[in-house]
Amino acid sequence: MGVPNHGPDCWTTTFPTACRYCGRRVYVLTCTCGSCVLFDKLGEAWPLHAESSPSTAMQDLIEEGWTPADIQDLIRREARARGVTLPEERGRGATGTANRPPRNEPVEVAPDGQADVCGQVVSVRACPDMLVRLSIAHTTMARALMGQLADRSYTEVLLETDERDTAGRTMRFRFFVEQSRLAPGSVRAGRSVSASLSARDLPTEGAIWLASEIKSD
């Protein structure tokens, strides 16, 4: 496919939608030459949306409290969704990483059954559109299978507990809670909270943790 070459004979179209990565409202500009760009709003300075610029998007995620592990997990999920094979990680320096001991990085606990957890909030993220957040197509069938997850706004919380797994790694739980259950400012990074979680299977694949109750200290 050639590089889009915008010219005087091009026809452009704009329409609003939700960004599949952050869930925010954006405007898509498409052109008959094949180009496609996202803007935060139309007119004036035509501010480019973060996901149209990878370096800007990465900086935004860092400023919102995303950890390197969070960003790496996002990259892996997107790679699986797009059918892309990621290259193996390589250590820096001439000696490589073959003889280095593994780092004690936190591990996220996969959703399964129920769990009562308590710990410190690592990051908080608004999810006004759960279908977008979970990379599920907006279809009538998907909305029916997702139920209230497709109709209500949620908040995504990453919680780090004091518990460790059998490998000695700190355990983390990534869960979703209805925004209507949260008082403004009650859950934010650095705050201690406790939550009752239950696993919810997704219609595509995998599962997520949902909080039926959450309390902050």
CATH H-level superfamily of the domain at 108-216: Nucleic acid-binding proteins
Number of helical regions: 5
**Largest beta sheet, briefly?**
5 strands, mixed, barrel
The residue-averaged pLDDT reads: 77
Description of the molecule:
With 217 residues, the protein is α+β, with helices and mostly antiparallel strands. It contains five helices and nine strands, in the order E-E-E-H-H-E-E-H-H-H-E-E-E-E. Among the domains are: 12-53, no CATH class; 108-216, Nucleic acid-binding proteins (OB fold (Dihydrolipoamide Acetyltransferase, E2P)). 18% of the residues lie in helices and 34% in strands. Strand 6 and strand 7 form a beta hairpin. It is elongated and about 65 Å long. Mean pLDDT is 77; it is low at 90-102.
Topology record:
Elements: E1 12-18, E2 25-31, E3 36-39, H1 54-63, H2 68-82, E4 107-108, E5 114-127, H3 130-133, H4 140-146, H5 148-151, E6 154-164, E7 170-178, E8 192-201, E9 207-216
Parallel strand pairs: 4-7, 7-9
Antiparallel strand pairs: 1-2, 2-3, 5-6, 5-8, 6-7, 8-9
Keywords for this structure?
OB fold (Dihydrolipoamide Acetyltransferase, E2P), three-stranded antiparallel β-sheet, alpha+beta, 217 residues, single chain
Briefly characterize the structure.
It is built from 5 helices and 9 strands. The chain is of the alpha+beta class and 217 residues long.
